[in-house]
Amino acid sequence: MEAKKIRSTFIEFFQSKQHYYVPSSPIVVKNDPTLMFTNAGMNQFKDAFLGNEIAKYPRVANSQKCLRVSGKHNDLEEVGVDTYHHTMFEMLGNWSFGDYFKKEAIEWAWELLTEVYQLPKDRLYVSVFQGDEGDKLAMDQEAYDLWKSIVPEDRIIMGSKKDNFWEMGDTGPCGPCSEIHVDLRSEAERAQTPGRDLVNNDHPQVIEIWNLVFMQFNRLADGSLKELPAKHVDTGMGFERLVRAIQRKSSNYDTDLFEPFIQALEKKSGKTYGQNEADDIAFRVIVDHIRAISFTIADGQIPSNNKAGYVIRRILRRAVRYGYTFLGFQQPFLYELTPLIAEYFGDIFPEVRAQQEFIAKVIQEEETSFLRTLDNGLKMLESIKSELNAKNEKVIPGKTAFELYDTYGFPLDLTSLIARENGFSVDEKGFAEEMEKQKTRSRAASESETGDWVLVHEDTGVEFIGYDFTETHSHIIKYRTITDKKGDRYQLVLDKTPFYAESGGQVGDTGWLVSDSEKIRVIDTKKENDLIVHFVEKLPTNPEKRFSAEVDREKRTLTMNNHTATHLLQSALREVLGDHIQQRGSLVNENLLRFDFSHFGKMSEEEIARVEEIVNAKVRENIPLVEQRNVPIEEAKKMGATALFGEKYGDFVRVITFDKDFSVELCGGTHVPATSQIGLFKITSEGSISAGVRRVEAITSKAVEAYLREQEALVKEIQELLKNPRDVKKAIESLIQERNDLKKEIETLHLEKAAGVKSELLKQFVEKEGVQILISQVELPNADSLKKLAYELKNEVSPALVVLAAKIEDKPQLAVILEESLIASKGWNAGQIVRDLAREIQGGGGGQPFFATAGGKDLSGLEKAVAKAKAMFL
Ligand code: ATP
Ligand code: MG
C-alpha cells in the first residue's frame, strides 16, 4: 500500500466511526509560552483537555505535522543516526473529548492495524502502565483487561512511568498510556530472541508505532496531579513508522515517503545510498531535515538568531554540514530539494506547494551564508593549527573549539574531524565544560517559575467584548504569580474583558482594574492558547470584588489607526508590486506599524511614493469599516479574504473589509470606524530582513504630525548651522567639496613626510654578519604608512631586518619585517620578535613569520623596545 493510501485509509477508518476530520494545525506554535513547535497531535486540543474550551466535535481524527527538536521531546541527535526518529513527522491521531474511552480506543486500534492494514498479529506487542508510587497511581487494570481479551497475555508488557505515562511538558494534560510496538526483524532473528525482550529497548527493528493515551490528569507546577473534569482519548501514531511496517521495510527511509528524496540526493552527489554507514547517515539527515525546514518556513518561521528561528537555523546547518563533510557539497544544494517537497506533500499540506519558490529562496540564502561561515571557520582552524605547531602542541583547547562552535557555528564533530585529519585532537572534555557553563548562564537568565492558577470565581468561560466596548464590570476568575530574575509578576483572567490580547501583530491593551478600594494597572494583555491573560502590576488585596476593567483608550485608538493602515498598506503593496506579496509578519502598536512581506527586490523611491499615495487616497475617501463576525471560513475565502499561512483559523472567522474591492482580510484585530481617522500615512523605512523578505515601517496620525515637525526643525537647525545661506543645498555641496580638497592635501603631505623619513632611515642601516639591520624610532601619521614604510625598506635593502618603533597618533606601535631567507638561515620569526618587544610597550600582536606588528599602551616604552631590539641583534 502506498503512503498516500495509508494516510487516507486512517482518516476514512475513523470517519466511519463518526470522527470528524480536522486539518493539521501549524507546526509553529504562536500563543503558548510553554511550547515553540507542535510536538504532538494533542497540542491543538490542549484547551479542550484542560476544560478551558468546549470541544467542537466529541470525536476527531487528523494527521498532525510535528517537530521534536526542542524542549521535553527532542530527538534531533538521534535523527539520521537511527532509522525511525525524525525531526518533522506526521502523527496520525484519533481523539475523544469526554466521549469514548479505553475500550473503543483499544479495540479500534487493533482492528485498524490487523484487519484493515493487515499487520501480522504475531509481530505486535502492547504495553500497559504498571503504576507509580511517587505519583500514587495504581496499575492500569482496565487497559490490561481490555487487551487481555484481544491478545495473548505474553504479548502484554508492563511499562513504567517513563514509557507509559504520557506528558506534554513539565505541566499540562497527561495520563497513562498503552503503546503498540511492532517487531520487524527477520524470522531467523525472531527465532533467536523473543520480541517482547526487545520492546522499549532501542532496538531499531522493534519499534513503537502507536501510543494510546488516556488523558485523565493535569500536571501542576508543584508536580502534583489533578483529575481533569472529563476523561479523554488522545492517540498518536507515527505515520512514517506505520508506512514502514506496512511496506515491510527495515528503515523508514526505504519507504516511498523518502525514496524520491534519497534518489535525488544520489544523483546530485554521485554517491549511492547503502554503501557506507557514515555517508548513509548524511543521506538520512538531509532527507529528514529538508522536510522539517520546508514545513516550518511554510508556516511562517524564518531561520534567525533567536528562539524558534534559531532552532530552524541549527537544523538547516546540521543538514548542510553533513552534506559538506560526507557528500561533498561545497555549494548550496538543499534548496534544490524543495520542488520534491511540493510534489509529494502539496496535496495534503498545500502550504508547501503554494510557497515553494519562497521556501527555496530562504533556504538557499541560509545555505550560502553558512557555507561562508564554514569557510571562515576552516581558515580560523588553519591559523589555530599553525599557532599550536609553533608551540609544538597537538591538542586544540576546549575553549578554542567552543569559540569556533559558538561564534562560527562550527560543530564539535567537524572540528574534531578536521583536527584528526591533521594529526591533532580536541580537548572534548574542555569543550563540554564550556558548553555547560554557557547553558548555566542562559538558564540563569531565562529561568522562571510559573505558579498554579488560584481560582477565585467559578470558571464559566471568558467573554471578550473589546470590539464593542473599552470598559466593563467584571470578576476575576483566577490569578497566578510568575517568578523570575526580575522578581514577581502577576497574571489574572477575567470573566468578561474589553482588553485585546496581543495577537495578529497587534499589541495587547493596557489600562486599569478599578474597584471601590483600589486601582491596579494592567501592563499588558496576552493570549495563552485561547485564554486572555492580563498582566498586572500587583494582585488585588481583595480579588473577589467586582472590578471595572478600563482600557487605555488613547493608546487603543492610536493602535487601531496603525492596524487599519496596515491593511491598506498590504493592498497598496499588492497593487504596486504585484500579487506575490504575502504577509510574513507584522507589528502594530500605538507608535508605528511594521509590515514584513515576501518580495525579492528593494522598493524604489517611486514605488514607495506610489504606495503612500494609494493609502492616503483611501484615508481621504473615509471608507467605513465593514466588520463581519462568525463568517464560515469557506464563505470568507470566497469573498477573497486574505489569509495567512501558518495561522490557525477556526471554522468561523472574522472578516474586516475596507472597500470590498480593495481590502478584505481575515483579522481578529481592532479597527477604525472609518479610514479618515488615520489622518495621514507615511512610510519611514524600507529594508530587507532576510532572504526574500522586506520590511516596511510606517506611521500615522499624530506620529506623522510629530515627524513633520521634526523634519522641519532639522532643516531649520541646518540652516542656522550654515549661517542661513540662501540656498541650503548648495551650501552643503560646497562644504563637501572643500572637505574633499583638504583631505587630498593632507594625504599628499603625509606621503611627503613619509618619503623624508624613509630617505633618512635608509642611511641608518648597519651590517652585521651579512644582514642589513635597521632599528629605529619614528613618528608616522597612521598604521598604513608604517606597514608601507617597512615593506619599502625591506625591498630596497637586502637581506634586511627592520625593526620600527613608531609613535602613531600618540600611541606606540611596532613593526618587524625581515627577508624571507632569514627565517630559515637565522631562525628568526617576525611574529615572535614583535611579541617579545611588545612587552616593553604593554601590548601584543602578531602576524606572519616575515612581517608582524604590535600595538601597545605605553608610549614611553618605545625607547626601551628599541634598546631591547638593539641588544638582541646588534
Ligand atoms: P519513541 O520512544 O520511539 O521515541 P515516543 O514515546 O517519544 O516514541 P510518543 O510521544 O508516544 O512517542 O508519540 C507517538 C508516536 O509518534 C510514537 O508511537 C511514534 O510512532 C511516533 N514518533 C514519536 N517520535 C517520533 C519521531 N521523532 N519520529 C517519527 N515518529 C515518531
Ligand atoms: Mg521519543
UniProtKB/TrEMBL annotation:
It catalyses: tRNA(Ala) + L-alanine + ATP = L-alanyl-tRNA(Ala) + AMP + diphosphate. Residues 704-752 form a coiled coil. GO terms for molecular function: ligase activity. Keywords: Aminoacyl-tRNA synthetase, ATP-binding, Coiled coil, Cytoplasm, Ligase, Metal-binding, Nucleotide-binding, Protein biosynthesis, RNA-binding, tRNA-binding, Zinc. It is found in: Cytoplasm. Residues 1-710 form the Alanyl-transfer RNA synthetases family profile domain. InterPro entries: aa-tRNA-synth_II/BPL/LPL (IPR045864), Ala-tRNA-lgiase_IIc (IPR002318), Ala-tRNA-ligase_IIc_anticod-bd (IPR018162), Ala-tRNA-synth_IIc_core (IPR018165), Ala-tRNA-synth_IIc_N (IPR018164), Ala-tRNA_ligase (IPR050058), Ala_tRNA_ligase_euk/bac (IPR023033), DHHA1_dom (IPR003156). CDD domains: AlaRS_core. Binds 1 zinc ion per subunit. It comes from the Bacteria. The keyword Coiled coil applies. Gene3D superfamilies: 2.40.30.130, 3.10.310.40, 3.30.54.20, Bira Bifunctional Protein, Domain 2 (3.30.930.10), Threonyl-trna Synthetase, Chain A, domain 2 (3.30.980.10). Catalyzes the attachment of alanine to tRNA(Ala) in a two-step reaction: alanine is first activated by ATP to form Ala-AMP and then transferred to the acceptor end of tRNA(Ala). Also edits incorrectly charged Ser-tRNA(Ala) and Gly-tRNA(Ala) via its editing domain. HAMAP family: Ala_tRNA_synth_B. Consists of three domains; the N-terminal catalytic domain, the editing domain and the C-terminal C-Ala domain. The editing domain removes incorrectly charged amino acids, while the C-Ala domain, along with tRNA(Ala), serves as a bridge to cooperatively bring together the editing and aminoacylation centers thus stimulating deacylation of misacylated tRNAs. Belongs to the class-II aminoacyl-tRNA synthetase family. This is Alanine--tRNA ligase. The lineage of its organism: Bacteria, Pseudomonadati, Bacteroidota, Cytophagia, Cytophagales.
